[in-house]
Amino acid sequence: MKKFLILLKRRSNRISVFALFLVTGFLIIYMLPREGKFRYEFQRGRPWMHETLIAPFNFPIYKTEAELNAERDSILADFHHYFRFDLQIPDSALRSFILNLNIRWKEYLAVRYDIEKEEIEEFLTGNENLKNFKDEFAEFSSSLLRHVYDRGIIAPGETTDIIISSQESIVIVRENIGERAAPGEFYRQKAAYEYITENISGWIESESPGMPANLSGFFSSVEFSEYIVPNLFYDEQMTSRVRQSLLDEISLAMGMVQSGERIVSKGDLITNDVFQILESLKREYESRLRGSNLHLILIGQIILVFSLLINLYLFLYHFRYEILINIRKTLFILFLLFIMVFVSIMFIRFSMISFYIVPFAIVPIIIRTFYDERLALFVHTIILLLVGFFVPNSFEFVFLNFVIGIVAIFSLTNLYRRSKLFLTSIVIILSYSLLYFAIAIIQERNIASIDLINFAWFGGNGLLVLTTYPLLYIFEKTFGFISDATLMELSDTNQPLLRKLAEDAPGTFQHSIQVANLAEAAIYEIDGNPLLVRTGALYHDIGKMPDAVYFIENQTAGYNPHDSMEFEESAQMIISHVAKGIEMAKRSNLPEQIIDFIRTHHGTTRVQYFYRSYLKKFPHNEVDIAKYTYPGPKPFSRETAVLMMADSVEAASRSLKEITAESINTLVESIINNQVSEEQFSNTEITFRDISRIKAIYKRKLQNIYHARVEYPK
């Protein structure tokens, strides 16, 4: 049991990575739609490449979305909004008008003729002319009110105003009977009031010659606005119900294909009509599979998903093993894969937006930023194959996005240049548009039939690619990565730590710059990361700042504090700059990738000067080598190995008494060969061919630095 636990502990990292792949696979399988897939792939305008297809059952020929939309548009273009006519409002308004008119009439007579209200009836018996004019006015006014109410006074409102301003006909429902009314056949309140007052004024003017004095003034003073109220109201519920019933009557199909009927033969061109029949068969076939044989569909999905994940695992195992043994890096790759599949499934299930807007190019761009092109393209391909299980037009989807992934990877060379991502976004939009246009004209054979809205979706896709910048920052902080943009910021010599290095240890600062130049040139030659090694070189000796005077490049002539120290003490002082540098870097929140250069730039070498000085002075004493040896670790990447070589070569070159091509060659060869013999590069993937190229670079660069100058005349 104990041995088993020890073995389990040793392999815990592998088990964790294996568990991550299992969890990712089952999460993807859980999200995948449980539905069968039509077994044939086909494209409009291309020959049918399969065996002759016979209809396996009766199925309808479904109309295309464009045809259905055209029918809907045709129906809605002839559709009219419904307004409800209120029959009670006119009667109530007329009763109120007559009642108020009689009251005001009695008040008018009482004041005008100075009689009591009780005497009015008797007074009117002797003045029939007054009574006749009043009755005639009441009848004429009532007829005007009845007229405007019969045509309808429409209630104001935002929706009503929009409908009326469109000058469309409406349907007026009276006692459950609908009648179409043109825009001029009903009134607004203002128009109804103006109509009544104009007609009343005309009547008064025509009757005034025979009318008793001041009676026209009474009739003119009657206010009609309080009797003109809306009796026509927009019925949104009825309008929606009628509209929906009309849309529901649209037939989704335009014919039937009978079981046993030949649909298409091998080699036949897939015309628009045949394509529509094939799409209908696919739709009907997949709908019949939905909900049946779910366990078989699940088994198939498990096999397919894990086949792709195993391929990804094997790729990482053989070509990117450093990722596979790091849980955080493996989690990053699997997280990107999972999130893109998740987003795709959500778009297919719920979104009304086109699937073309999903920016699949973001994944290869992000992986390319943190790793390399080959890994980016492989992960991108795995994602496309996974998503291709359930998206419509699988071939078109995979083809478009595979090419776009390649375009994104190779068009984005330097992400730290802000214009690069913008240009990549433009290239992606143009590439999508061009490829889609090519596929569309092959399928449609008619430019006019191309759905132009898809080009707008491609534009949105390109704009979403610009979100890569904030996503990179999030991934850097979450997974501990470092991007070129961050390296550019850190390599700025105006950074506080580098500015302090220049002030407190100017000699070390100059040495760091020279090392950065040497290492950058060398790593570029062997296809490493120049920006990473340059940044690491600038910070590799920051630990010398607290005790700058103990390092020869910062010492003034005639004073060396090591003269009064023991050899072991001096060696420990020199060695301590590594630990101090790591501590300072952590306090300044430098990324781990930069701290690695501080840890490894001396590997497990010895402080040769003080070690040999001790041996020379005390040849018979036993020496404790550990006191003269750096703690390590050894370099574990090509970048850290190149920095170690550059640091040693640059420092040693300053001690050359005679600067010649031969002395530089000898120096470079002896230092790097000694590091190789001490197996300082045993943990890196650097080759002897790489080391030979690095030596050549260092020799040439040092000769350029120390070249002879012309002696100027006095």
Note the topology.
Elements: H1 2-10, H2 12-31, E1 53-54, E2 59-62, H3 65-77, E3 81-85, H4 88-113, H5 120-125, H6 128-151, H7 158-165, E4 170-174, E5 177-181, H8 189-207, H9 215-220, E6 232-234, H10 236-248, E7 253-257, E8 262-264, H11 272-289, H12 294-319, H13 321-324, H14 327-350, H15 362-370, H16 373-387, H17 394-411, H18 418-444, H19 453-465, H20 468-479, H21 484-490, H22 496-504, H23 506-525, H24 530-539, H25 567-587, H26 592-600, H27 608-617, H28 638-653, H29 661-677, H30 688-705
Parallel strand pairs: 3-4
Antiparallel strand pairs: 1-8, 2-7, 3-6, 4-5
Helix pairs in contact: 2-12, 2-14, 4-6, 6-8, 12-16, 14-16, 15-16, 15-17, 16-17, 17-18, 18-19, 22-23, 23-24, 23-28, 23-30, 24-26, 24-28, 25-26, 25-27, 28-29, 29-30
Q: Briefly, what is this?
A:
Helices cover 63% and strands 4% of the residues. It has 30 helices and 8 strands. The strands form 3 sheets. The protein has a 4-stranded mixed sheet. It has a two-stranded antiparallel sheet with strand order 1-8. Strands 2-7 form a two-stranded antiparallel ribbon.
